[in-house]
Amino acid sequence: MNPGFEIPIVLIFYNRPNLVSKVFSIIREIAPINLFLIADAPKDNHNDLEKCNMSREIVEKVDWETTVYKDYAKTHLG
């Protein structure tokens, strides 16, 4: 891994764990020093809770030295 990418990276995600996994693997390769994770909450009337949770689990697997800032919505913002 790199010693640390100095430009902060922001990952905004929702309910697409396959895509989040692909993007997060690239983020892992560049190992940013500051990582911002922003996620919307699942919709009340949809069955996307599982996919939202899976997406969040993927980004929780930070295995490099970084400062992580999280903003996970508690209700769906749209």
What does this structure look like?
This protein is an alpha/beta fold and 78 residues long. The chain contains two helices and three strands. Strands 1-2-3 form a three-stranded parallel beta sheet, covered by helices on one side. α1 (17-30) runs parallel beside α2. The longest helix has 14 residues, at 17-30. The mean pLDDT is 93.
Brief description of this entry?
This protein is α/β, with parallel strands linked by helices and 78 residues long. The chain contains 2 helices and 3 strands.
Write the layout of secondary structure elements.
Elements: E1 9-13, H1 17-30, E2 34-39, H2 49-59, E3 67-72
Parallel strand pairs: 1-2, 2-3
List descriptors:
single chain, three-stranded parallel β-sheet, elongated
Report the mean per-residue pLDDT as an integer: 93
Uncertain stretches: none
The description of the largest β-sheet is: 3 strands, parallel
What is the tally of helical segments? 2
Total strand segments: 3
- The H/E string reads EHEHE
Helical amount = 25-40%
Separation, N- and C-terminal Cα atoms: 35 Å
Across the major sheet, the strand order is 1-2-3
Beta-strand residue percentage: 15-25%
Radius of gyration: 13 Å
Shape: elongated
The helix/strand class is alpha/beta
